[in-house]
Design a protein that fits this description.
Layout: H1 10-19, H2 26-36, E1 41-44, H3 51-62, E2 70-73, H4 77-90, E3 98-101, H5 108-116, E4 119-122, H6 124-133, E5 143-147, H7 149-154, H8 158-166, E6 173-178, H9 183-192, E7 197-200, E8 208-215, H10 221-232, E9 237-240, H11 244-256, E10 261-264, H12 270-282, E11 287-290, E12 305-308, H13 315-322, E13 331-338, H14 343-352, E14 357-358, H15 393-397
Parallel strand pairs: 1-6, 1-7, 2-4, 2-5, 3-4, 5-6, 8-13, 8-14, 9-11, 9-12, 10-11, 12-13
Length: 398
Amino acid sequence: MKFEDLNLKKEVARAIANFGFSEATWIQARVLPPALEGRDVIGEAPTGSGKTLAFGIPIAERVRGAGVQALVVTPTRELALQVSEVIAELTRYLGVRVATVYGGVAIEPQVRELKRAGVVVGTPGRLLDHLRRGTLRLGSVKILVLDEADRMLDMGFIDDVRRIIRSTPRSRQTLLFSATIPPPVRRLAARFMRNYLHIRSQDGDKPEIEEGFIEVRDGEKFQLLLALLEAEEPRSAIVFCNTKLMANVLAANLKRHGVGAAAIHGDLSQAKRERVMADFRSGRLRILVATDVAARGIDIPAVSHVFNYDIPASADDYTHRIGRTARAGASGKAICLLAPSQHDDMRRVHRSFPHIARREFDADLSRYPALDHRLGRLPRRRRRFVARPPRSRDRRRR
């Protein structure tokens, strides 16, 4: 389907042309017609399939004039920023302002943005903060979008999301998007959506990702990663770890051995996270070492490889990790580095993804340096010593 077949506003059609798109992706082709008619829609689709335009276009079509008329709720700051950029481009010729609200930064500039905004994109905690302060009012919202709803469930935001939904009019249109729709998200939809249309991806619609695992001894994973980076020559890659400590250690080791890498995780300040992401998007940084905080919200079409240095604990986490590659119609590779200590995690993942095949990889790993665990450690937190009154002599005698 071509976007010109949708009879969009000329300002919106012009903005879409600026993106360089003429034909809709499969999720856009299925979601846009009912969404533009005002129906509630659930879009269950893999990451990188074009969901942001699928809800951004209906927002651009419906918002006009002053006041907050559209709200997009996202689980992470990175995703909120990326969604805001897309919607700002879609509405640039309409004179609509987009406000982005998330935690970890000063609230006063956001308050000023909200006064002029027609569209708000934000994370649940900061949105609730603004609602409590009275700096955000949702009584005029026409369209509500819940993006990556399952991730909000995983992060414990589901109650916050319910509170936000209750602050919007019942007459609103609701669009919900995610790569997976677990039972709690279905219950949320049944409670707050009306006569919704559930659109699921088909096997033929899935991105083209070559998936596999390579078995390696515990002490040789870092050497295998270096060998793979040399052999695969990725344009840009994300290496996933299960902990912040390992992300720091791994990024420091890669930098020490001449690989341009940086870590991103929840302990970084917002300014630092934005600098790292800007370097990664621009190509100044080729390797991003990330925890699952980055499995959502990174929309960079140039990511050619995902390496699971640590096997994720669940099949859903695996889904969102590998969804960082093969975006916007490109192909990609996802490789797991499987050590004996993580076979149980791999079995859990393999039950949902039996197509993940064992790969042979011949390399003399002794040529590569081993991981130095002393590098890149998180700073130790200082222990607090509380002064206690001395015990009396009578107590000491007892």
